[in-house]
C-alpha cells in the first residue's frame, strides 16, 4: 500500500477518535532496547499529537528480574507469578517507580509529548489490599505472595488534572493500602481498572503476543475480533488459556464498566499500535461488548 492509500485509510479513524481517550499498557518486553522503545514512543506521540488523550501504564518485570540478579536478590515465581518479598519490593520501587518511569518520560519528550511520570500511589490513584495466601492454578501449595496487592479502589482525580492541562500521564503499577504500605499490582489489571474509571474509548494491552490465537504456536490463527459472549466461550473451551485468561477477563471487566473497545496486540513488532487503531484490518484482537 502506498503512502497516499495509507493516509486515506487512516483519515476516517483520525476524525473518529479525535478528542477520545486511550489507555495503553505495555510491559518490559517493549523496553528491552532503546530502539524498540523509541519506535513505540513515536507511535504513542503521534496518537497524542492528533488530538487523542493518552494514559500510559507500564510494567517492567524483565528489568526487575535483571536488577535482582545483579543485586543478588533471589527471584521467586509460582505458576508464573512473582512473589514480592522485601528485597523484591525494593527493586520494584527502583525500577517501576524510578528508572523505567523516568526513561519513558524522557523518550516521550524526545518525540514532543509532554509526559508526567506518576505511580499508582500518586494522588491515591490506586488503593489495594495485600493479597492473602492462596492456592494458584498450576501449584498445589498455599502461596504467600508477599507485598502483592489486589486493587480495591481507583481515584482518577490526579489523571484528570494532568489530562486537562494537556499532559500525558505515565503510570507505574505500584499501589498503596489504607496505611500507606506500597504494594506491587498487576499492570494489566491496573490499566483495565484505570481505563474503566476513566470510561476510556479504548484500552490497548500490548505484550509479547500478537493477540488471542486459536493455536498459540500458529500466528495465522489470530482471532481478529471477539465479543464478550465469544470470549467467555473461548475461555470455557480452552481456546483462551494460561496467562491470556486473566488478560481477557480484565478486558471483559473493562467492557462491562464502559470501555468501548479493548485491543490485545504485540508490543514487540513495529507500528502495531497505529495499524490496530487506524486501519480496517488491524493487527491484533479487538474485544467488544
Report on the structure:
- The protein has one domain (19-288): Carbamate kinase (3-Layer(aba) Sandwich).
- The protein is built from nine helices and 14 strands.
- The two termini are 31 Å apart.
- The protein has 289 residues and is α/β, with parallel strands linked by helices.
- The strands form four sheets. An eight-stranded mixed beta sheet has the order 5-8-2-1-11-13-14-12, sandwiched between helices. Strands 3-4 form a two-stranded antiparallel ribbon.
- β1 (21-26), α2 (34-49) and β2 (53-58) form a beta-alpha-beta unit.
- The string of secondary-structure elements, in order, is HEHEHEEHEEEHEEEHEEHHEHE
Hey, roughly how much beta strand do the residues contain? 15-25%
Instruction: List the strand order in the largest sheet.
Output: 5-8-2-1-11-13-14-12
Number of strands: 14
The CATH H-level homologous superfamily: Acetylglutamate kinase-like
Count of all domains: 1
Structural class, judged by helices and strands?
A: alpha/beta
List the helices and strands and how they pair.
Blueprint: H1 3-17, E1 21-26, H2 34-49, E2 53-58, H3 61-71, E3 77-78, E4 81-82, H4 86-110, E5 115-119, E6 126-130, E7 149-154, H5 157-164, E8 168-172, E9 174-176, E10 182-184, H6 187-198, E11 202-207, E12 225-227, H7 228-236, H8 244-256, E13 261-266, H9 272-278, E14 285-288
Parallel strand pairs: 1-2, 1-11, 2-8, 5-8, 11-13, 12-14
Antiparallel strand pairs: 3-4, 6-7, 9-10, 13-14
Helix pairs in contact: 3-4, 6-8, 7-8
Amino acid at each position: 500500500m502506498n503512502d497516499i492509500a495509507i493516509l486515506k485509510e487512516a483519515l476516517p479513524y483520525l476524525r473518529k477518535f479525535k478528542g477520545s481517550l486511550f489507555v495503553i499498557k505495555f510491559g518490559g518486553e517493549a523496553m528491552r532496547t532503546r530502539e524498540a522503545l523509541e519506535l513505540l514512543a513515536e507511535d504513542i506521540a503521534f496518537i497524542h499529537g492528533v488530538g487523542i488523550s493518552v494514559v500510559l501504564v507500564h510494567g517492567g518485570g524483565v528489568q526487575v528480574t535483571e536488577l535482582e540478579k545483579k543485586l543478588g536478590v533471589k527471584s521467586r515465581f509460582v505458576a508464573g507469578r512473582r512473589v514480592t518479598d522485601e528485597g523484591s519490593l525494593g527493586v520494584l520501587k527502583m525500577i517501576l517507580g524510578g528508572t523505567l518511569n523516568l526513561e519513558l518520560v524522557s523518550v516521550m519528550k524526545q518525540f514532543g509529548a509532554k509526559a508526567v511520570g506518576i505511580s499508582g500511589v500518586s494522588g491515591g490513584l490506586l488503593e489495594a489490599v495485600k493479597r492473602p495466601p492462596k492456592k494458584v492454578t498450576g501449584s498445589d501449595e498455599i502461596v504467600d505472595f508477599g507485598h502483592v496487592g489486589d486493587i480495591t479502589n481507583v481515584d482518577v482525580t490526579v489523571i484528570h488534572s494532568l489530562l486537562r492541562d494537556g499532559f500525558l500521564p505515565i503510570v507505574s503499577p505500584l499501589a498503596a493500602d489504607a496505611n500507606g504500605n506500597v504494594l506491587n499490582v498487576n499492570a494489566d489489571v491496573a490499566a483495565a481498572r484505570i481505563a474503566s474509571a476513566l470510561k476510556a474509548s479504548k484500552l490497548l494491552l500490548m505484550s509479547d503476543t500478537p493477540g488471542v490465537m486459536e493455536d498459540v504456536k500458529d500466528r495465522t490463527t489470530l482471532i481478529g475480533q471477539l465479543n464478550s459472549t465469544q470470549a467467555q466461550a473461548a475461555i470455557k473451551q480452552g481456546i483462551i488459556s494460561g496467562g491470556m485468561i486473566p488478560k481477557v477477563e480484565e478486558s471483559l471487566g473493562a467492557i462491562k464498566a464502559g470501555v468501548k473497545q479493548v485491543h490485545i496486540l504485540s508490543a514487540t513488532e513495529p507500528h502495531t499500535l497505529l495499524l490496530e487503531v487506524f486501519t480496517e484490518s488491524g493487527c491484533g484482537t479487538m474485544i467488544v461488548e
